[in-house]
Sequence to fold (562 residues):
Amino acid sequence: MITLENITKTFQTKKQTAVTALNGVSLTVEKGEIYGVIGYSGAGKSTLIRCVNLLEPPTSGQVKIDGVDLTGLSKEALRNVRQKIGMIFQGFNLLKTATVYQNIAIPLKLTGVKEADIDARVKKYLKIVSLEDKHNVYPNQLSGGQKQRVAIARALSHEPEILLSDEATSALDPDTTDQILALLHKINQELGITILLITHEMHVIQQICDRVAVMENGDIVEQGKVIDVYTNPKHLTTQRFVDSIFPSQIPASIIKDLEQQGPIIDLTFVGDAADRPSLSVISKKFAIETNILSGNIVQLKEQPFGKLRAHIKGAASETNQAIDYLKNQGVQVSEVKSIDSIY
Amino acid sequence: MTAFIERWGSTIVEATFATFQMVTISLVFSIIIGLPLGVLLVITRTGTGNKRWTYRVLNIVINTIRSIPFIILLFALLPFTRVLVGTSMGVRGVIVPLVIFTAPYLARLMESALLEVDRGVIEAYQAMGIKPIQIVWHVMIREAKPSIILGVTIALIGLIGATAMAGLVGAGGLGDVAYRFGHVRYQPEVMYVTIVILVILIQLIQSLGNTMSAKAKKD
Ligand SMILES: Nc1ncnc2c1ncn2[C@@H]1O[C@H](COP(=O)(O)OP(=O)(O)O)[C@@H](O)[C@H]1O
Ligand SMILES: [Mg+2]
Fold:
């Protein structure tokens, strides 16, 4: 549905120095999926998503929507394509001087939707975002979450096949973020709209994304299905993002002490394995004691995923058998050394 | 009091009317020229190539005109005015210099008003595939309306000040009455009355401008 091929983008700044925001990025988003791009601030995420509808024309590379290269289109043809690509933003970008109703109706009118259809469309999409009681309210009287709903309704009212989201939840509190994410998920499921979103929060990725790409310094350093990237992050940046959802503040000195008495291991559970009480089983089955140091289970879109850090105390042979047992149960096990501990 | 009204009433009413006439006509033309110029300044501001040159030229022209005091502009433009409207005297003759004086000022005020408009909203409209000209009208000018109204109010008050010099080319007006009768023929009451009228007028205009601007803000 969306194919970016070898996109580069260089900004020429005033002082004649060039900033390369994108370094030859390729990405394919399939029809009907929710694709997330995550990265730290300045990684080039906004530049990338803005290349999709050519708000930022790439310096080189191709942007294909349904096989059509947008970079070769006339201004008019590009406008027509853009009408079928919705976009929402961190800052909502609503008209302050227009009511909620007008904020949706005006763009419809300007894109040539028939006067007779406009009213029905506005009402339909305000209902979908649960704002049917706010028609005549001005944006300044709305909360952040409500403003984003208006922006979503505005995007949907053009009946797009694609929705681009540039940090749409980054200005919202956690509860509101979840509501907006749930709404985006519903839009994807019920209206079949393909969503490409960018974010700096893992929370957003795990909540609704099917696939994820990790960006750093203008490159995609890792991409794949969310579950694969979470369970087996390869790039250091990806590992840091994954670790960020498993808060753990164990001082290195304590880890060092514990190491004297037995290994510290990280257990990664996916799906069913996350539900089973594996740790208590091994401490009964083998002559060892286990002690959980930190851990968390998160619900990914498809299945639960958990990580535990535990200390095992006991004879080496018993410990090794216990670890083998866990591995046979479908749990990934890796030993943590105080030196490579990032905690 | 009655004697004063009998002696000066019609002169002052006439002068007030002349001021109104000059100000209204000049303001309308100044907006017709100044608002599009302001838009042009904003959309050429960050461009390259042609856009860049348009901005530079406009910038220099506007700054040049704005550095000339009205009284000098009035005389400097005499030949141009005569060619353009057939006369350089009377209300007709003073409109041209008033507009040339006010339009660049208004253009600057419009520029700063339009620059306040959130770039993000403009982008959102570009992303929806809406034509640039429609974005100018339905986003930029619409959203800037509160500041545009305040800008027009400021320009209007400046314009009233400039019309005081219209008497120099025989266009009459309140300033002319204050000068000719109040100063030259030494009738201080006439001067004071025109001052009071001007003060009240300016107060009213500013309050009206503030109210309309606040109303346009919608928050
Ligand atoms: N219009 C611009 N002009 C110059 N540099 C820019 C511009 N937009 C983005 N950049 C630079 O490109 C890099 C990537 O920015 P951006 O795509 O906004 O990152 P992100 O959204 O991941 O935080 C940054 O170094 C930023 O300073
Ligand atoms: Mg960004």
Remarks:
- Chain B touches chain A at residues 118, 120-121, 123-131, 134, 138-139, 142-143, 145-146, 216-219 (CB under 8 Å).
- Chain B has a mean pLDDT of 91.
